[in-house]
Amino acid sequence: MTRKQKLELTWVGKDERPRLEPRILIENTQRSYHAATRSADDHFDNTLIQGDNLLALKALERDLTGRVKCICIDPPYNTGSAFAQYDDGIEHSLWLSLMRARLELLHRFLSDDGSIWISIDDAEYAYLRVLMDEIFGRANFVATCVWQKRYSRENRETIGDAHDYILVYARQLDAFKKVRNRVPLDEKSAAVYKNTNNDPKGRWRGIPMTAQGFRPNQMYEIVTPSGARHKPPEGRCWGMIEPKYKQLFAEGRIYFGKDGSSQPSVIRYLSEVDGLVPWTWWPHEEVGHTDEAKKESHALFGRDDTFATPKPERLIRRILEIATNPGDLVLDSFAGSGTTGAVAHKMRRRWIMVEVGDHATTHIVPRMRKVIDGADKGGVTDALDWQGGGGYRFYHLAPSLLERDKWGNWVVSKEYNPAMLAEAMCKHMGFTYSPSQNPAEYWNHGYSSERDFIYVTTQAVTHGMLAALSHDAGPDRHLLICCKAYSGKPEEFANLTVRKIPQAVLANCEWGRDDYSLRVASLPTVEREPSGDDASVEAPPPKPGKKPRAASLDTPNLFEQPARTEA
C-alpha cells in the first residue's frame, strides 16, 4: 500500500445508509427542572432528550453543526454480554453501520478545536479506530488512553481484563493542540517538590539543565560555588545559552547540590507549575475504577436499581479537564445513567444528553435534580466544591411527520398541530423556524436568508390567496408556500414558489421509523435454503432484544422559537 492509498474498512451493508427524518423536539415541562435562583455562572440552557439517539442527532444537526467543544460517549461495546438497559451483543456489521451513521453526524457537530472521546474495549477497538480514521481523518487522531478499570485481578478469563480504552480524535488536531488543557497536579505528583532549605518561595525541585544534541552557543563551562567545573556530558549540551544561565544564577534559580559542587539544575517552584501534560496511562488511583462507579450508582439509585455499566465521575472529570473550559458545550449521545451530564454540570459546562431507554426518566432525571438541588454529595462534588444550581429542559422526539391513512396513502400525522407542522417543514426545506410576532407578517414562519421566507398552512390555497401573499410579502422578498393543495397559476407571481404537503417531502427520508437503536432486534430476518450438513437443522429463534443505552442532546438556547409543551 502506498502512502497515497487510503485504508478503508469494509463490511456487509456498508453502502446502505439510513435516510433519517429530521424530527422536531417537544418539551415536557413537568420533567424540565431548574434551581429556584441563579447566579452569574449557572447554566440553565442544558438539554436532556429521550428518544432514539440517531434521530435525536439528526434533529439537532442544523443547530449544533460546529458548536460542540467535547463529545464524550460510551457506546455499547458489542461484547455479547446482555445488560438490563440494552443488548450489548450486536452482529458486527450492524454495529459498524449504526456507529458510522452516528459518528458522521457527531463529526459535523464539533467545533474546529473540539474533540471526541469514545470508551471502548478490545471487542471493537481495532475496527472503531479504522472507522474513525475514515470519518475524522487519520491526521486528527490524538491518542488512545488506557483506563485501568480494575485494581484486583480478574481470574475468570484466560487473561484478566483490567482496562478499557478511550479513543480520542480532534476535529482539527492543530486547533485542538492550542486549547488542550493540562491536568491538575495531584499530591502524589507534587511529592517530588520539597523545601529542604526553607526557601521563602515554597516547595521546589531541580530540573536537569542539559539537552540532547550539540549547539555551539550552549557548550560553555560552568563553575560551581565550590569551584567545581562542569561541561555538558558527551552527546548533550546545556539547555540554555550562557546569558540565560547567568540570569537564572543571579536570581538564585540554579541548584548545585547539597555541597554546591554537583552538576547544575534549574529550580522550579511548585507554585509555578500549571499542571501536567496529559498522558495515555490513566491508573485507577487518579480517575477511579468500576467498583467506585458502582458505589456512586448505589448511592444515587439504591442497590436494587443500579445501572449495569456506569463510569466513575472522576474518569469523566479527567476528560472534561483536558478538553473543555467552563461554559463549553459537552454532548453525550449514549447518556446511560447520566454521568457525563452530572459531571459537566458540576464543572459548570453546558451539556446535552440523549438517552433512548426508560432510564432517561428513572435514572437521569432524578440524578440531575439532585445535582441541581445540591443533594448529590458523591462523585466529584466535594473536589469541585459544587453547591447546586442551574437547570435543564427535557425533550422527546415528535412522532414521524407522515403516517399512512386507512387507504395506505401518506398524510400528515394527526398529532401535528399547525405550529408543529410549520417547524417540521422548516427543517425539511432548510429554513430556520422563527415565526414573526408581527400580525402583519402572518406569512413569515421562518427564513433561510435575509430575503427568503417560508409560509406553511394546512389550507388549500386559492389564486386570490396567492395574490394576497405575493402582495403582503412584497417584491423584495421570496416566499416558499407549503400547503395541502392550491389552485390558480403560482407562476404568475415572481416572488412565490408553491409546494404541496406531503408531496414536497415524501421522497426525503424514511417515514414512521422510530428505532435505529444498537440492538440485535434490529437485524432483519433472512430466509435461506438448507444445504449440506445443516439441511435438517432449524435455525435457533432470534435472541429477544432489549432496549439499548442512548445519547444526549441540545441546549435550549438553540431553539429560538415559542416553546411547545405538553402536559
Automatic annotation (TrEMBL):
Enzyme Commission number, as recorded: 2.1.1.72
Region ranges (Disordered): 524-567
Keywords, in A-Z order: Methyltransferase, S-adenosyl-L-methionine, Transferase
Molecular function terms from GO: DNA binding; N-methyltransferase activity; site-specific DNA-methyltransferase (adenine-specific) activity
Entry annotated with the keyword Iron-sulfur: no
Keyword Kinase listed: no
Domain DNA methylase N-4/N-6 positions: 68-360
Source species, domain of life: Bacteria
One GO biological process term: methylation
Pfam families xref list: N6_N4_Mtase
Signal peptide: none
Primary enzyme class: transferase
Catalytic activities: a 2'-deoxyadenosine in DNA + S-adenosyl-L-methionine = an N(6)-methyl-2'-deoxyadenosine in DNA + S-adenosyl-L-homocysteine + H(+)
Family membership noted in the UniProt record: Belongs to the N(4)/N(6)-methyltransferase family.
Protein name: site-specific DNA-methyltransferase (adenine-specific)
